[in-house]
Amino acid sequence: MPSRYIEDQFSKMIGTKDFNLSVNMGQIEGFSVIDKFGINPQITQSTDPEDIWEFGGEYVFDAFGTAPIKYISSSDASDTQLITVSGLDVNGYLVVQEVIANGQNNVVLQTPLWRVFRMENESDEGGDIAGILYCHTDPTPTNGVPADSSVRAIIDNGHNQTLMAMYTIPRGMVGYLYRGELGIKVSGGTSALADYAHFHYESRRCGKIFKIKKAIDCIVGGSSVYQDPRSFPDVIPALTDIRLRVQEVSTTMGVWGAFDILLVDEKHLSDGFLQAIGQCGDLERVTYNVLYDTDNVVYGTDNVIVA
Questions:
Q1: Residues 295, 248 share a domain
Q2: DSSP of 225-240, one letter per residue?
Q3: Among 243, 157, 229, residue whose Cα is nearest residue 200
Q4: Is residue 63 part of a domain?
Q5: Tens-place pLDDT, residues 275-305
Q6: How does pLDDT run across 156-173, given as a tens digit for each residue?
Q7: CA 148 to chain CA mean position, Å
């Protein structure tokens, strides 16, 4: 295993325009970027906490080893667009599939999913989605509208893609969180200057519990937008769930959030490093106290910061 490959790449290019551009152009094998962004148009004091996704409410993360996300349907019978659905299969591997919507009727995905994190309308000009397009687990939606508890992603009328600030690192990859942003939108004059939202950036290892990685307050009369360019990116093992959550609001408001993650194929990383960060392999998470890579460099688990 080329244990020094990523170190060599980073030492030469990381943080430079050449590196960023090369990754986006697909010129560095095994490196890619995911840009996640979402909104929650309305959160109230009676509904918080909520996650930042367009459907609203607390997002449902299905248990690992299941793949209940099987269907798409629309609330409008005229929606027959070609849709790209991106997510993870039952084993956590990345799956990108195309499906043609059939109005209010359920269309079954070719590959059922454990996670879905993006849908996009691939239609030509004039082919906007007329209703709300759902990706869900409900075998019997009502006029194309599934039960709320079964919804895992939506495309709202006029947006033509999902807006959800959550992600799960695919199996076989390691994520590096580089940047995050949060913001609020609230109506009112000077009386609204004291209004605020309390946010959490949270992550969860596969099969574990969510942990708060950062707590942020945005205030209308102060910092209504929060930007977090990381000096040192968070290291995020495979199958880790990431979400941006609004824990509390002072009044009814809308919020938005975004983050960028560099994805690196684990084959470019040493065994010692992967073990130190708790990388999932063969569906198991292995923890070690002292670890050695193939070049006999010691990694102590206390010296590796992971999300």
A1: yes
A2: EEEEEEEEEEEE-TT-
A3: 243
A4: no
A5: 999 998 653 433 333 333 333 333 333 334 4
A6: 988 999 999 999 999 999
A7: 20
